[in-house]
Write a structure and sequence with these properties.
The chain is α/β, with parallel strands linked by helices. The chain folds into 2 domains: 279 residues, 3-Layer(aba) Sandwich (Aspartate Aminotransferase, domain 2), CATH 3.40.640; 115 residues, Aspartate Aminotransferase, domain 1, CATH 3.90.1150.170. It is 40% helix and 14% strand. The strands form 3 sheets. It has a 7-stranded mixed β-sheet, with helices on both faces. Strands 1-11-12 form a 3-stranded mixed β-sheet, with helices on one face. A two-stranded antiparallel sheet has the order 9-10. The longest helix has 36 residues.
């Protein structure tokens, strides 16, 4: 390996750039290829990369009164508007959906326990029996957030889904009713607007109404799927979003920002301050003035994002989101979203029509789950696992695999702005060809 070796005694200077170009970059992830549909991230385009670089050079952190601090807030407002959130919803950026969910559920914990005269952030949970409710298809970071917040992963009530992979609201109501009778504090109901597995959207209005009825915070995880609201063909599925007390969305997913940017929105940002304040530090707050006479960037810390989440040191992420929305505008984002949803529907159509393909779930957004089938094969899960391995090793097509209703299949998630219809058709052809070859080999 050319990158192996001991710690160098003497540096090589700018020659490192050559090593980056010749060795490191060619052996990176293939995220910028037109057939990359595995993770819900994508190689960014020129504008957001330039914006990210500008922030590294001119404002390495989001604090103080600079253009970057201003764009942090402006971009959050633009992002909320794009995603159909009310103007009262204010946000904070973090590194990804994991932290964004943690911040939202930290706010939920603070608010819910305050209703019982418990200041969870200042005094701890005090052993109060509490629960969070989410579907079996919700992102696993909900469980991790419960653990980090001191509620415990076992406090999460995992609700089964219906035939369309949406949270079963009757089972949700039964769980809420049962816990209410047992004196359990309902911290939050978590609905998902676009699951990472199939893109399913929970019944947002019904989930929100149940949360309100039982006195729970209502959180909507839209890390992947929230931008889908701009597609009028599916916008009605987001009915009830206005009931949410908190919402998250990851610009580094469907909007194509570089990895490491998520946003948490809440109705009242003061709850975030109560939940996450780090308490004053003389070296920090004492460094800034307390008047409105702002002449240089260090006269004020700007918006106190450090007290709205779990990060003190944090890059200026807003300029990246601002640059994307400034580049594309609402219509440009809408065209991308619609195009990606079209690709998923085209893949579903081809799978539905082919004798050796089985559609595992009708696409809601830009995810299409399907598998190769053949009556002569007993273990289709194992066969499709081998199809996937050959796809990613031998072709330009890089979907992920997943399990839907017990069936292992292929899961391309079309958020790659470099992808076109011909790439989808190429994927289908490759799956059928590889599947046919594997079946033929097994028959020998």
């Amino acid at each position: 390996m050319r990158l192996e070796g001991p710690l160098p005694e003497f540096g090589i200077g700018d020659a490192v750039l050559t090593e980056l170009e010749d060795v490191v970059i060619p052996n990176g992830t293939r995220m910028s290829e037109s057939g990359f549909w595995g993770w819900i991230t994508v190689g960014p385009s020129t504008v957001p990369v330039a914006a990210s670089l500008a922030a590294m050079v001119a404002s390495p952190q989001r604090y103080t009164v600079t253009a970057f601090n201003h764009l942090e807030e402006l971009s959050l407002d633009w992002l909320a508007e794009l995603c159909g959130l009310a103007s009262v919803m204010k946000g904070v950026y973090s590194s990804g959906g994991s932290v964004a969910n943690l911040v939202a559920l930290g706010a939920a914990r603070q608010w819910a326990l305050e209703q019982h005269d418990i200041d969870a952030s200042a005094d701890g949970v005090r052993g109060a029996p509490a629960a969070i409710y989410c579907s079996r298809e919700a992102h696993h970071t909900v469980l991790r957030a419960a653990g980090v917040l001191g509620l415990g992963r076992r406090s999460v009530r995992v609700i089964d889904t219906d035939d369309d992979q949406r949270m079963d609201v009757e089972r949700l109501e039964a769980a809420l009713r049962r816990d209410h009778a047992d004196g359990v504090i309902p911290i939050a109901v978590v609905a998902t607007a676009g699951t990472t597995n199939t893109g399913a959207i929970d019944h947002l209005r019904r989930c929100g109404e149940l949360a309100q009825h039982y006195g729970a915070w209502y959180h909507v995880d839209g890390a992947y799927g929230l931008p889908g609201i701009v597609d009028s063909r599916v916008s009605s599925l987001y009915d009830g979003l206005e009931l949410a007390d908190s919402v998250i969305v990851d610009p580094h997913k469907w909007l194509g920002a570089p990895v490491g940017i998520a946003a948490t929105f809440v109705r009242d940002r003061s709850i975030l301050h109560r939940a996450f304040t780090q308490e004053p530090a003389d070296y920090l707050e004492g460094s800034f003035g307390d008047s409105d006479d702002l002449r240089v960037s260090l006269d004020s810390m700007g918006v106190p994002y450090a007290d709205f989440g779990v990060e003190l040191s944090a890059p200026a992420r807003g300029v990246v989101v601002w640059s994307l929305l400034r580049e594309l505008g609402r219509e440009g984002v809408k065209k991308r979203i619609e195009h990606d949803n079209d690709l998923a529907r085209h893949a579903a159509k081809l799978a539905r029509e082919h004798e050796h393909l089985d559609l595992l779930a009708e696409p809601t957004l830009s995810i299409c789950c399907f598998r190769y089938v053949d009556d002569r094969v007993g273990d289709l899960n194992d066969l499709n696992a081998h199809v996937l391995r050959r796809l990613v090793q031998e072709t330009q097509f890089l979907p992920s695999g997943t399990v839907v209703n017990g069936h292992f299949g292929l899961r391309p998630c079309f958020i790659n702005f470099r992808s076109e219809i011909e790439h989808v058709e190429g994927l289908i052809e490759a799956v059928v060809r590889i599947g046919n070859e594997l079946v033929a080999q097994a028959a020998k």
